[in-house]
UniProtKB/TrEMBL annotation:
Keywords: Cell membrane, Membrane, Protein transport, Translocation, Transmembrane, Transmembrane helix, Transport. Essential subunit of the Sec protein translocation channel SecYEG. Clamps together the 2 halves of SecY. May contact the channel plug during translocation. The gene is secE. It comes from the Bacteria. InterPro entries: SecE_bac, SecE_sf, Translocase_SecE/Sec61-g. The keyword Metal-binding does not apply. This is Protein translocase subunit SecE. The keyword Transport applies. It comes from Polynucleobacter aenigmaticus.
Length: 125
């Protein structure tokens, strides 16, 4: 029985999403169809259609789940302890220093391998 209910809910959800997509497409088509009208009217039609589609999706089960997920995510972001400016500057300098040292090491390794291959083994230089 629950299997049937879950598939029915998925069908309803996809139907609602399809309706919302159709409304967005209709709003965009009307925006370009009303080219001879004022820009304000065209923008009102387009944004009105987009807002209507967002509201339709928001009242669907998938929309409600997404809104709950977004709220939970925002709650988790608020719990993050962000580094201070000093810590950020110090870590940035550490990264730059590491990149400088690694680039120097790779340049020396490249020149050593180049010398070994071309001068020592092949005798080209």
């Amino acid at each position: 029985m629950s299997q049937h209910t879950a598939s029915h809910s998925e069908q309803k959800s996809s139907w609602v999403s399809g309706l919302a997509a159709l409304i967005v497409v209709a709003a965009l088509v009307l925006y370009y169809t009303l080219a001879d009208q004022s820009l304000l009217l065209r923008l009102a039609v387009m944004f009105g259609g987009i807002i209507a589609a967002v509201l339709i999706v928001a009242i669907s089960p998938d929309g409600r789940r997404f809104i709950a997920y977004a709220k939970d995510s925002w709650y988790e972001v608020k719990k993050v302890v962000w580094p201070t400016r000093k810590e950020t500057t110090q870590m940035t300098l550490v990264v730059f220093g590491f990149v400088l040292i690694m680039s120097l090491f790779l340049w020396i390794a490249d020149k050593l391998i180049e010398w070994l291959v071309f001068s020592a083994f092949l005798g080209w230089k």
